[in-house]
């Protein structure tokens, strides 16, 4: 009996140790709990109550989460890149030649996660990445679903608005999430640029340079 208990405790210890070593697991747990409580409550104030069990209105789809409330169903921000698949399915931007979700948002997000797994970032850098991820996704849901500003009556106009809004929204998330990009270690900053660089168009670089100039401002850092 004692031997069996010892083996069980050892297994639990090993599983816990391995789990704790997953990059970013702590910050992901914190962010996901906040999304499933405080942020969900915010959405409930707009679209009706979920019920006694708040998580009962959240469902897992193919790599992303959806929230289904009495007055609305919506893509739900989370610490996964599949969120952009959900948004693309809803707005179908690629079909009108606007590739923000398919060629910028999702690939960049996936590249960040891959580089996290390859240990390219420090602990504080990983925390910053996941916080930015949630910041950007919440920004899109608030703009498109809560405020309804992405419905322009024409698919291309809607997708152009989504692209422009999100690009303009990026600097704020980068600068204000976690410790802020300006305060990250230099290695993290370099790897951020290497991660996003291959996906940046001329228009996207304008927003990237805004972040750089903000970090170089001695009055703010």
Describe the secondary-structure layout.
Layout: H1 2-20, H2 25-47, E1 58-60, E2 65-69, E3 72-76, H3 83-91, H4 100-117, H5 123-146, H6 155-176, H7 186-196, H8 202-216
How would you describe the overall organization of this protein?
With 221 residues, the protein is mainly alpha-helical. It has one domain. The chain is 64% helix and 6% strand. It has eight helices and three strands. The chain has a three-stranded antiparallel β-sheet with strand order 1-2-3. The protein is globular. The chain starts with a helix and ends in a 5-residue tail after the last helix.
Largest sheet: 3 strands, antiparallel
β-sheet strand percentage? 5-15%
- Helicity level, as a percent range? 55-70%
Order of helices and strands: HHEEEHHHHHH
* Estimated structural class: mainly alpha
Rough outline:
globular
Low-confidence runs: 7-20
> What's the end-to-end separation, in Å?
60 Å
């Amino acid at each position: 009996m004692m031997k069996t208990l010892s083996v069980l405790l050892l297994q639990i210890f090993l599983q816990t140790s391995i789990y704790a070593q997953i990059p970013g697991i702590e910050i992901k747990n914190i962010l996901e709990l906040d999304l499933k409580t405080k942020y969900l409550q915010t959405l409930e104030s707009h679209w009706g109550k979920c019920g006694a069990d708040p998580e009962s209105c959240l469902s897992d789809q193919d790599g992303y989460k959806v929230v289904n409330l009495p007055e609305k169903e919506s893509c739900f921000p989370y610490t996964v890149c599949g969120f952009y698949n959900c948004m693309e399915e809803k707005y179908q931007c690629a079909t009108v030649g606007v590739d923000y979700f398919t060629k910028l948002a999702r690939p960049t997000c996936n590249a960040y996660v891959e580089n996290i797994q390859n240990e390219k970032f420090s602990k504080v850098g990983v925390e910053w990445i996941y916080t930015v991820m949630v910041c950007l996704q919440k920004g899109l849901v608030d703009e498109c679903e809560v405020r309804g500003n992405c419905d322009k009556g024409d698919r291309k106009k809607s997708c152009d608005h989504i692209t422009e809004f999100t690009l303009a929204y990026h600097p704020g998330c980068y600068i204000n999430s976690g410790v802020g990009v300006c305060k990250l270690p230099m290695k993290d900053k370099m790897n951020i640029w290497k991660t996003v660089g291959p996906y940046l168009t001329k228009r996207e670089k304008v927003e990237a340079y805004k972040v750089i100039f903000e970090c170089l401002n001695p009055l703010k850092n």
